[in-house]
Amino acid sequence: MKKDLLTGGLFHFKNIMYFHTHSITRVMGKIFWSVAFLLLLSLNGFGQKTDSLKVRELIGQSFAVLYADPAQANAIAKEALQKAIDIDECLLIAESMNLLGIVYDVTAKYDSALAKYEEIVVLSDKCDLEVMKAQIYNNIGLIYWNTGELDKAIGYYTKALSIFEKHEKLKGISSTLSNIGLLYTEKDELVKAQEYHERALVLREQTKDWYGVSVSYVNLANIYMAHKSFDSARTYLYAASRIKDTLNDLRGLTIIYNNLGIICQNNNKNDSAEYYLRKSISIRRGLGEKRLEAADHFTLGYFFMDAKAYDKAYAQLDTAMTLAQETGAKSLIGRIYERYGRLDTLTGNYKSATNNMIKYYEIERELSGIEKEKAFDEIQTRYQTEKKERQLAESKVELATQELKVRQRTVWAAILLAVLALLIVSGIYVYRQQRLKQKQLAEESRLKEQLARAELNSRIQEERVRISRDLHDHIGSQLTVISSAVDNIAFTEKDEQKKQALYSIADSGRETMVQLRDTIWAMNQKVIDLDTLVAKTREFTSRLNLNGNVEVRRNANDDADMSPALAINIYRIVQEATNNAVKYAGFTKLEIAFEKQNNKLSVKVEDDGRGFVLNDLSEKGYGLINMKERVREFNGNLELNSTPGKGTTVKVEVPLNRSNYV
Is the C-alpha dihedral spanning 152, 153, 156, 161 positive or negative? Predict the structure, then answer.
């Protein structure tokens, strides 16, 4: 390693000098070189410690955005790897390379991930990082599992387990046991799978690894779901959700909600299945994980298709396609085309079904060819890089040999200058120590400030989630109970007029619940982008059952970020204008258009209905006062234009300044 070569060279030079000098000059020389050597080690050690912290910080940042933005995670991981190479710290190099492999794995580039993991295995042997090698074996096993090579996968898991047991790494042992259990689940050997999951659970409870305990609960729930023992599965999932709530593991909660949705669907409780899956979608959106949110919409589309709610299934697949295309999730895009084809077949649209299945097979062929080509290119690039590094190392060795010969000829002159050099070095040492101390204090202050800011943001988000959860769990549940109670009363009421009035009250309660969920959705976001607002609007219009008479368009070329307050107010204005059109306009076509130009967001709701005379409209009518108040709060404008027989247009325009999107 770089540091070892450097210090070795210093000792060798010191031995030559010691052999050729007399006693007085020997003492002076030893003082000089000892101080210089200690100074070098001190400066190098301090700098390396600071750089190590930076690498750790970059690795943490990459993990934080791994699922939300794999491309950004990849860029940060590469930066961490370069810094780790610069300071020549084996463990950090291996961890950074491991992170790159995980990015490849998450984006389904399995050949690239395997190539990266093999590099880490070689590095682990070189640097005696056996536990790291066990972790990599675990990762390789996961890839072979994903590619369907289950025998290879279990072989690597067994290697990892052997190393973890040798070093008594209980967390690694439990993790590997859990993976082997998942593998047996995949092979439908459920008895063996349950045995491994229970062994992993015992170790995790022993080490108080509560996150791992929650994972084991979910895995055991999957076993019971496979046995159709849904009550037992639900018990484990509820236990896992309590732990993940405590740990604030939002990503883990989405997995639980998905499983609960599947259980509800198997029990023909489609409303509950939809509820759990929408909760998962809401969390994904809050975390900014568009790729995983797309997968949830895809699953919800399958639920609707199974329930023969084909219009809703199309709507969910449309949203999934939009998000998948934004995040470049090629494999998911292909699966969506395949699901479109099945839906088209069920609805009798055979021409569209054929086109969608063609697109699906084209993407499958493309993914297979591209991955092989990328893996070949990467192997060639790695070979050329290693060749250049080897040539560079040989050149450095030759240069170091020449420099040593020169130093041997000039050693006597160096000794005469030793005392003067010692004074100079001492002065420089003190000066550098002061500068480094100041730099360290500044760096520590910056890191503390970043940590404090991150903690504050985390507390704010936790408070938002807590308030929204309280609204949903308390007020939402009470509204549901009230609506159900009023429905029951109406069902037994014999007076038809009273019965209809009671049903109207119950419907109002459910509509209030919908409005409350929209508010909770906004509270759970930090920033809401234009695509999310458009998707939310499409979801709202799909509930109105207008038989395709409504079109929601997005005309902006780039995205627009908004604060949750601005987004929910615009959404409410669109709701108000749309509801008015439904009640009074008698339209055949309604268009809702979102457009961003010159740092302004404009939203237009236009129908071709009967229209009215503007002078006949009081300020209290048409919800105009509420809409104007919502726009005025964000320094925007609202225009209302209508002509009898030609329809009505409501246009909102707000500036996207800092106060409206931060």
Answer: negative
Average pLDDT along the chain, 662 residues, taken 10 residues at a time = 32 33 43 43 51 87 82 89 88 89 85 90 89 90 81 88 90 90 85 92 92 93 90 92 89 88 85 86 87 87 87 91 87 90 90 89 75 44 50 58 66 74 80 83 78 64 58 58 71 77 72 67 75 89 81 81 87 91 89 89 92 70 78 90 91 80 47
Contact 170, 161 (CB under 8 A): no
User: Distances from the Cα of 89 to the Cαs of 4, 141, 623, in angstroms?
Assistant: 12, 26, 66
Alpha-carbon distance values, 500 to 480, 505, 544 (Å) = 19, 9, 20
Q: What is 240-295 written as a DSSP string?
A: HHHHHHHHT-HHHHHHHHHHHHHHHHHTT-HHHHHHHHHHHHHHHHHHT-HHHHHH
Positive or negative, the CA dihedral 300, 301, 303, 307 is: positive
C-alpha separations of 390 from 9, 97, 339, 382, 541 in Å:
20, 20, 51, 12, 64
Is residue 455 exposed (0-12), middle (13-18) or buried (19+ Cβ within 10 Å)?
exposed
Residue labelled with tokens 């993407």: 363
Query: Among 413, 370, 383, 483, which Cα is nearest to 17's?
Result: 413
Q: Are 74 and 61 in contact (CB under 8 A)?
A: no
End-to-end CA distance of the chain: 47
The DSSP code for 585 is: I
Asked if residue 178 lies in contact with residue 218, where contact means CB atoms within 8 angstroms, the answer is no
Taking the C-alpha atoms of residue 464 and residue 27, their distance in angstroms, rounded to an integer, is 69
CB 310 within 8 A of CB 346: yes
Phi, psi (5° rounding) for residue 502? -65, -40
Its pTM surpasses 0.70: no
Residue by residue, DSSP assigns 159-222 as HHHHHHHHTT-HHHHHHHHHHHHHHHHHTT-HHHHHHHHHHHHHHHHHTT-HHHHHHHHHHHHH
| Amino acid at site 366 | E
Token pair of 654 as six digits: 């707000």
